[in-house]
Amino acid sequence: MPRSVNHVASRNRRKKILKLTRGYFGARANVWTVAKNTWEKGLLYAYRDRKAKKRNFRSLWIQRINAAARLEGLSYSQLMGAVHKAGIDINRKVLAHLAYSEPQAFKAVVEKAKKAIK
C-alpha cells in the first residue's frame, strides 16, 4: 500500500510561510528552508523589539523631563522626588508630553512640586 503523506496540508503550510516572506532578499523569499528560518527569526526580533521599544520610549521621556526640569532649576531625580512627595499622580509619559508641548502646564506642575519640598 502506498504511503499517505497528506501533501495538500503540507504544501498549504509551506505556501503560507512563503507568502509571509514575499519581498525578502534572494533565497529568503522563495527557498523553503531559508524562508522558514528567516520568518522564525523575524518573529524573535519582533518579540524582542516590542520590549526594547518600551525601554526606548521611557528613556526618551526621562530625557525630555530632565531637560525641562533643568530649565526650572531642578534635576530629573529632584523633580521626580518632589512630584511623588507632593502626591501628584502623573506618569512619565504625560509629564514628558507636558514638558515638550505644553511648557506652561509643566511649569505649574514643577511649582506645585517645589512647594512640597519646602
Describe this protein with a few key phrases.
rod-shaped; 118 residues
Please tell me about this protein's structure.
The structure is a single chain. The chain has 6 helices and no strands. It has 118 residues and is mainly alpha-helical. The protein has a single domain (7-117), classed as c-terminal domain of poly(a) binding protein (Orthogonal Bundle). The model has no long low-confidence stretch (mean pLDDT 95).
Number of domains: 1
Helical segment tally? 6
**Overall helicity:** over 70%
Q: Report the sheet-strand fraction.
A: under 5%
Here the CATH topology equals c-terminal domain of poly(a) binding protein
* SSE ordering: HHHHHH
Distance, first to last CA: 90 Å
Measured on Cα atoms, how large is the radius of gyration? 26 Å
Question: For the report, how would you describe the main beta sheet?
Answer: none
Low-confidence region ranges: none
Class by SSE composition: mainly alpha
β-strand number:
0
Q: Examine the secondary-structure arrangement and name the CATH architecture.
A: Orthogonal Bundle
CATH superfamily: Ribosomal protein L20, C-terminal domain
Return the CATH class. Mainly Alpha
Overall spatial form: rod-shaped
Mean pLDDT: 95
